[in-house]
């Protein structure tokens, strides 16, 4: 079952894709992908460790998921070797800044190891320009990983699949079907283009589990390519829902959520008491609620100190009254704003 589901999703990404793992969340998938990138560049690291290899550099959007930093620390690469790439007003990675920072690290003696792009950033729902990023990655012989934990399930929608164009050029992709598709938590997948690298990197061949003289096909023993030993059978959740809804059911689900987000954005634009933070790219709709004295003003952000207090107060009031749990957050220099995303629509 696990092999079948993984192969089917790989087929949806591209013809060259053929392996993957079910993961306890997208963070784990991102960290595993970084480890695979290092193993591909330095296969001896599996046995000899990392003392003999040069400093490696990871490049990710300034709006990337924090797990990139956590796993850089966990893997011994170090948080200081994760280089933040500037984003535009839409939240998309600026490729010229990526190229510049890669060149800077090469001059300083580092090995550019991996670029982490994002399809559906946590706050704005931005999609990085993957084809341009893939060109840069290829130029510098870097592993390209896409954190599509939030946005990757658009792969089921014919209407919105184009947002993922270029996904097949990556080396690895994380998709959390427990997010957009509402599969029960936890259900996350790390998909890999190289069909043999997972086993090469992680296998240990424990004889009490993976005997060579079993009476059945050993390809059913997928456990040796996992870092985990005991794990939950997450594939059941996805398989049962896929069987019940079908691919067309998933597509309808995704399209309906995108339609709702479009409607909500239209309503924000129609009302003087609200202001969009940036144009919607995905389900995330980011907005400010404006107090009366700020409505209609052209210089709203000059009142950032006052505006910063509004969203937390609204959230606290709504939670205490049991009406709705609406998220909020600051971003770069922007004051706190509210955000409609999967938490509300699902």
Describe this structure in words.
The chain is α/β, with parallel strands linked by helices and 346 residues long. It folds into 2 domains: 2-242, Type I PLP-dependent aspartate aminotransferase-like (Major domain) (Aspartate Aminotransferase, domain 2, 3-Layer(aba) Sandwich); 247-345, Aspartate Aminotransferase, domain 1 (Alpha-Beta Complex). The protein contains 11 helices and 11 strands. The chain has a 7-stranded mixed β-sheet with strand order 1-7-6-5-4-2-3, sandwiched between helices. A 4-stranded antiparallel β-sheet has the order 8-9-11-10. Helix 2 packs across helix 4. The model has no long low-confidence stretch (mean pLDDT 92). Keywords: Decarboxylase, Lyase, Pyridoxal phosphate. The modification N6-(pyridoxal phosphate)lysine is found at residue 179. Its cofactor is pyridoxal 5'-phosphate. One of its GO terms (biological process) is carboxylic acid metabolic process.
Features:
Aspartate Aminotransferase, domain 2, pyridoxal phosphate, globular, 346 residues, alpha/beta, single chain, Aspartate Aminotransferase, domain 1, 7-stranded mixed β-sheet, PyrdxlP-dep_Trfase_major
